[in-house]
Amino acid sequence: MEIFDLTIHELHEKLKAKEVSSVEATRAMLERIEAVDGQVNAYITVTPEQALVEAEAADKRIAAGDIAPLTGIPVGLKDIFITKGIRTTCGSRILENFVPPYDGTAVAKLKEQGAVIVGKLNQDEFAMGSSNESSYFGPVKNPWDLEVTPGGSSGGSAAAIAARTATATLGTDTGGSIRQPASHCSCVGLKPTYGRVSRYGVIAYASSLDQVGPLTRDVTDAALLLGAVAGHDPKDSTSVNTPVPDYAAGLQAGVKGLKIGLPKQYFIEGLDPDVKRAMDEAIALYKSLGAELREVSLPHTEYAVATYYLIATAEASSNLARYDGVRFGHRADDARGLKEMYAKSRAEGFGSEVKRRIMLGTYALSSGYYDAYYVKAQKVRTLIMQDFLNAFNEVDVLLTPIAPTPPFKIGEKLADPLQMYLSDIFTIPVNLAGTCGISIPAGFSAAGLPIGLQLIGKPFGEATILSTAYAFEKETQWHLKKAPL
Amino acid sequence: MKITRSEVEHVARLARLELSDSELDTFTGQMDGILAYVEKLNALDTEGIVPTSHAVPMENAFRPDQPADSIGVEAALANAPLRAESFFRVPKVIE
């Protein structure tokens, strides 16, 4: 067992017992990044100097007896998180040289605990993608098979966990961007309820859907990292003022008598046989642990992808209007006049997936189409939310696959954006409903590729999905299997 | 056809995106396919359904109107592609 293999809670114990220093742990992680990230491309920017300064500060705190769960722990951040003095690209050429003047709230909270930031992680450009192929900084490779995508958009955040190049990472999830890569890389990824974690200092994609969450090696770490970043923030008016429970303390709650719903629309024909088998095994395990499983219905599931690609693109077209070459970001240097400067700077700065979504969103919001597309989608969103409310009147948690198939090959779905969008069918509804979901390792395909299991909770029901996930992890131990790297 | 090439050109102007001919061709085909797909929402009767803008009930978040620290002119201008004194410099606006 190397230092870089450890979980947050394992490394915490060693730091506390002074068996390992944060400087040693940080050096081990930086060496590991140096050794393997050339193959994986999980990092856009590595920050060794700052990391070692932070590690020394953490060691001083620990020596003084002041240690929080994340003190001295090497973490990576999706490059969507604004970091003071550290280049933040969001995977885009338009922000290639952007060095933010402040830290966002989630990052500030990690720093308050004394976490060590080792670098900024690769992602789909502006978090738009399901495969990490839209990054300006090149695709991320899946550590389980370097020809396969790690999923997206937080692909670097998931691949770094699987490659053991960060102890834990933060990602964001707008339509599945934490849970789907977690599933594809065999790690734990949690999308909290909308409003649970502040988005202040997180580059906006679709503001009614975006949430911040942890990607980790096990469920205990997800509980610790979520606890560190969750909570109300006066700087994010959409963050909700609800107390943050001690998620780690509640993990042992067990599943005896827990009502788990199986949405029939998620167990369809065409589900990959390996995924189906993993789900059947999970269902059998939960039964044997005393949970009560029953079928439920989410009748509007088939409309979720269409609803999402109208709402998310509309919001994106508005959010990304700020990239105009005036105050920060790329500016075309040969433009005549202001309007041409906008159009050229954006044309040069954005990649094709981002352009496509800005175009779709602009169309959906444009005069004559606003009611037919955008408002229609918002109404269907209401129906999808009601499906979840009705299901949660009957059950405590929903169990579903994360994706219809194991991770796909790099390049496989690039030519057909709609096919790529449809691969998010099981994660998107959770964002539309604004509730929470977690992906946990649930086995491997015949080809040895990871398969994830999704547990969906009631709004602000993170503690319940975490304890439900913990019960599964304790019995299966899939999370202990390491990628061959 | 859900969308024509000239409509795509119009949308690109609205979005302040200069697209090449081949991008216009590709996007016309792809947007047409995606718009045909989202057409399925019309199968649902949404008469009387209230649109959802945020999934969690939100109220306006008020705070006292008191001055607080800001990042300052130098930090705000540090990423400017072009500046002049304490301003962002842009090409001529009025033609």
UniProtKB/TrEMBL annotation, chain A:
Domain of life according to the entry: Bacteria
Catalytic function, reaction form: L-glutamyl-tRNA(Gln) + L-glutamine + ATP + H2O = L-glutaminyl-tRNA(Gln) + L-glutamate + ADP + phosphate + H(+)
Active site: K78 (charge relay system), S153 (charge relay system), S177 (acyl-ester intermediate)
Any one Gene Ontology molecular-function term assigned to this protein's record: glutaminyl-tRNA synthase (glutamine-hydrolyzing) activity
Domain Amidase: 24-466
A Pfam family it matches: Amidase
The keyword Transmembrane is annotated on this UniProt entry: no
Keywords: ATP-binding, Ligase, Nucleotide-binding, Protein biosynthesis
Enzyme class: ligase
Role description: Allows the formation of correctly charged Gln-tRNA(Gln) through the transamidation of misacylated Glu-tRNA(Gln) in organisms which lack glutaminyl-tRNA synthetase. The reaction takes place in the presence of glutamine and ATP through an activated gamma-phospho-Glu-tRNA(Gln).
Family: Belongs to the amidase family. GatA subfamily.
Record HAMAP family: GatA
Protein name: Glutamyl-tRNA(Gln) amidotransferase subunit A
Organism: Geomonas propionica
Biological classification of the source: Bacteria, Pseudomonadati, Thermodesulfobacteriota, Desulfuromonadia, Geobacterales
Encoding gene (name): gatA
Automatic annotation (TrEMBL), chain B:
Highest taxon of the lineage: Bacteria
Presence of the UniProt keyword Ligase in the record: yes
Keywords from the UniProt entry: ATP-binding, Ligase, Nucleotide-binding, Protein biosynthesis
Main EC class the enzyme belongs to: ligase
InterPro entries recorded: Asp/Glu-ADT_sf_sub_c, GatC
Catalytic reaction equation(s): L-aspartyl-tRNA(Asn) + L-glutamine + ATP + H2O = L-asparaginyl-tRNA(Asn) + L-glutamate + ADP + phosphate + 2 H(+); L-glutamyl-tRNA(Gln) + L-glutamine + ATP + H2O = L-glutaminyl-tRNA(Gln) + L-glutamate + ADP + phosphate + H(+)
EC annotation from Swiss-Prot or TrEMBL: 6.3.5.-
Subunit details: Heterotrimer of A, B and C subunits.
Homology family: Belongs to the GatC family.
Function: Allows the formation of correctly charged Asn-tRNA(Asn) or Gln-tRNA(Gln) through the transamidation of misacylated Asp-tRNA(Asn) or Glu-tRNA(Gln) in organisms which lack either or both of asparaginyl-tRNA or glutaminyl-tRNA synthetases. The reaction takes place in the presence of glutamine and ATP through an activated phospho-Asp-tRNA(Asn) or phospho-Glu-tRNA(Gln).
Annotated protein name in UniProt: Aspartyl/glutamyl-tRNA(Asn/Gln) amidotransferase subunit C
